[in-house]
## 1
Amino acid sequence: QSSFEGNGDRTLRDATIPGGWARGDLRTVGGGAIDIRSSEKLQIEDSIFVRNFAPTGGAIRANHTDVEISGTSFEMNYAHLGGTLAVDGPLLQNFNRFVNEVSMFDTYFRANGAGYQGGAIHSLVPVQVIGSLFANNGVYADPNPDYMTLDSGGGAIFAFKVEVHSSAFIENVVIDDPSASYPHIFDAENPASMAFYSGGAIMLDTFFEPLFDPDYRTSTITESNFEGNVILLQGEEPAEGRIIARGGAVAGSLEDSLPAPLEVSQTTFSENVIVAFDRSFGSGGALALSAGTLQEVGFTENEAENGAGLACANCGTVSVFDSAFVDNQAAGEGAAIHVDWYDFFPQRNPKDVERPLTVENVTFSENVGTFGVIAQSITSRRAGELDLAPMVEFSTFYRNTSSDSGLLHVDEEVNEDAGIIRANIFEGNLEECGVRALSRGYNITDAKAFCFEPARTDQTDTVADLEVLADNGGFTPTHAIGEDSPAARSVDVAICPDFDQRGFLRPGVNCDAGSYESLVLYGGALPRF
């Protein structure tokens, strides 16, 4: 182990560091290869770190120091916190942002592990990741009470906030110990006690979040890929207490007051799952958050108990635009999306409450669930006073299955309408009506008796003649319609959005229902701004 303190920048180039080892207490010992504190910056270029170990930061621990890494490989390093790297730093004097940050470019993390949080990286300061690969990293939750946490997660990254761009997260995991029976997690005198497992690839935890302005709290993920990330709980299911698993790939900050937003764009989530006690489990098979915006995001073959694609818990507001949910599967609520909204916090003034979920220009194709393709649970002392039903418009629903309710499902006892729908296409779906949606017109369904009271401009018992799901341009797949489809030019120009799901300009006259526009003025994607 090399230790450094103070004296400006430190740079490491073209080095290979294998087998570094640091023993000691989790709170005081770290950095199996490098331990640095109170320096301006640690810069690492074109190096290799293999099989290093420490209680904190298996390869590197940095305290009160900026870290910049490029062209470097980390393989088979291990720690209890941050398998390869652990970073912390002070707040500025006014407590509105951190002094230090971590950035990495063109860096490779494979088969690193942690017993607590952050299989590859554990950072209490912001992390920037560009053009990097995280594969087969994991949190292997240690059953030892000295290291066990009530909040394990981040198979690849645990961080205060992230900016991820053009990176891939493949087959990262959060796994408990097969012998775990959770006796040390729960207080026998408090049966309401809980343990969390979050983020098969990324877990965000915006601690002290009320201190930060919204822009600084916001994490972003762009042009990235999450595939085959897993949360797997194998121990004996506890008779008391509660196990919560969320975000098979990514778990945003779960806050009780002011949610920390997560913005995701041009990103794909495929085959991410949450499994516990030999069944689908948890919420957000791909992505769990508490507020945010998704634009041009693809969800394919993800699995969880609730919200196989997307789940929003303690939900502030979440908006989904120009995206696709395909072949996702939920055993419970929300084959594609699940929203859990409640208002028992003083920060949520009734005058400031916005609609929890808005969906526009989205394709839902062959998703399978029990209660709704989109589901929303509401716990509110003011449910009758607030307009909380999800708004779904200009979207396409094709051959989805909801075995015990309609495609939109909301707790019947607290909400009169399952959702507000406008200018959508419904074709070939299998459902049993539960709470009915409120139509604002221009919907097209092949059903004679659908789960809404038709408005004057709705078309029931009408087939839109959707084509097979395909790449028709844009970032996510769509079901095209022909020029002679009843959906074509069926919507009044006054309510037409400027673009369809693909980013193609709608015509400026009457437009098509659903997420695909057949009459495209310029025949190609145009800038949205």
## 2
Amino acid sequence: MQKRHRLRKSKDFAAARREGKSWADRMLVLVARRTDNECSRFGFSVSKRVGNAVVRNRIKRRLKEAARTEYLPRLSESWDLVVIARKDAANADYHRLNRSLRRLFRRAKIIDDRANRQTANSGAGSSVNVSPASSSPASSSPK
């Protein structure tokens, strides 16, 4: 992840926690604060209670990769985002962490995958609905 996309200073983490809104599940806590910066920034925090250094760094690597590849490109507005790992994250693989992070982004309404899917499906569905409507019994009974 590029430096410009990372939260690095403790005052930035503190500002996000103080002024932002948070959402949580069993594995992660997402804290989001809207900013006027030119780009969104991510910060990751894993407490010593979660595990030893190897475990903490593994969790951070997995979360950074998910943020870099799946969420950063989809953010249209500028956000300071802090992701805090909980104890249950220690035993989670990349896919479980990513699923948890996606769920939190949806709840925060920062990224909504379901809306994109529904738009794509409704576009296909509307063309299907149009053709049966044109061959409705009322229009096919000019006898």
## 3
Amino acid sequence: MRDPTTSTVLYKILTPQEKLDMPDTNWAGTALDTKDGFIHLSSADQLPGTLERFFGSSSGCGDVLYIYTFTRSSVDRQRSTPIKLQFDPAAGTVFGHIYGVSDSRPVLQGIFFCFSCVLIHSPSDWLRIDDRTLTLR
């Protein structure tokens, strides 16, 4: 696994309801993000594990998820309300967290259909993701 702190793109997974609830500006994340005080993000290498751990068949999240991207440059460019990208330890590695409110929505990278998450046990078999593309196999 590549060092998450070198990622130029970080990913945010949303359920359909979280997508509907997302405002066009001044987004502070999901209810969980708000509770925890930061927006939870994953690197490309971490995304399959995040899908499995938090959005698997036992999660009740449904069969459709939305994968959004934050580029480091967009976080660095935000000036109206300062935000900070910080990598904090979790699950034996470090994950990106945005502290503060994002001026704009992250960019929709793809719609992920997990079809009852039957294949969630081996994410790398059906999902290829890197800093530029998200591909369902």
## 4
Amino acid sequence: MVPQHHPLTGTQHRRAVRGPSRNLVLKKYVHTHNEKPKVQIFRDHPIGTKASIVANEISLYMWNHFPWAAESFKHVAPRYRDALVSHIKDNIDFEDCTDEEVTVCILKMAANRYRDRRCRLHKYCNEL
């Protein structure tokens, strides 16, 4: 166990927490600022200081709600994809973007996340 107070320097050590993987970053931002984080889209990618929140939110939503038995993201039922898009649009404010640009950005990022997750799951199952 790491001591909370270092006797020589008089400083306290903060424990590392898994904030991004537990959605604490988005919740803390909304609680502190009383507004949704503002993100812009450039060439189908979110940009800005809060762009990482989009990727974290997509990953968390997919991990908790998507079936992983589909061969690829194209084969995931449209109701799951539509629910993901509406969830992201409800929780994040996209500035200076059309609805179509936002939807394309979310679905491209989700497809990449789905491919990566399936690849890691496949490797893990083959090692067992």
